Amino acid sequence: MRKLAFLAILTLPAFPAGNKLTWEDRVELTRGLTAEYATVKVLLPRSKKALEFEANGGYDKKQWNEIARESGPAARAGDLVQITKIEIEEDKLVLQINGGFKGGKKWYQGVQIGMGGNTAPIGGNGSDTNAPGGTSIVLLFHKPLEPIKASEIKKMLAPVLDFEKRSVTQLYSETLSPETQQAIKEKRVMVGMDRDQVVMTLGRPEHKSRETKDGLDIEDWVYGIPPGKITFVTFSGDKVIKVKDSYAGLGSQVGGRGQ
After folding, report:
1. Number of domain units in the chain
2. So what's the pLDDT on residue 214?
């Protein structure tokens, strides 16, 4: 099963050749934006087609309102949303919000966070919304992409999304050990993390596989797109027991952490 997941990654389409982003630039954008939370500042429509947003901060408010009337809202001003996936294209970035158009009602419903058996639902602090689902935003540059940081993308999206407000995830992260907080900040998974902490660190994986090894049920989460660094996060139950980095297609293992 692990090999199948790895091969599935190798079959993904290559990156667009027109832009000037390096592999490191793409990793920084993906890790810096995926799983990030933001507070919505305007009505965010639920749309099958990604909502167009210009890199200079402009967007068609009338068009967004018309889409909202037809499909309803994905989120309203003040709601907390999460970037669940990012696609890097030749002259644009596509950001999936709350699981995209097919995302279920209240994407966080039933999700519990906490430590030591003391957990609480994410929506339990007043961040609950009536949003029926997710959506996506396409950030248009109208020219081949050049090196850019995730922090700059967040500033571009400031008219509609506020990444600065303290979210429930930030408050939760402050209850963790300093070592774990630093690892999350650095987008680095550690042995001993639970699934929620891994999602906070790297976002949701594109691929998962399960198998039984030596009588132990384990699950692998796979991050990364070749050619380049691929990270395998192995769980036993809810805890990470091993983290392995390697370079896809190059036959060179970067390193392994854990058992």
Report:
1. 2
2. 83
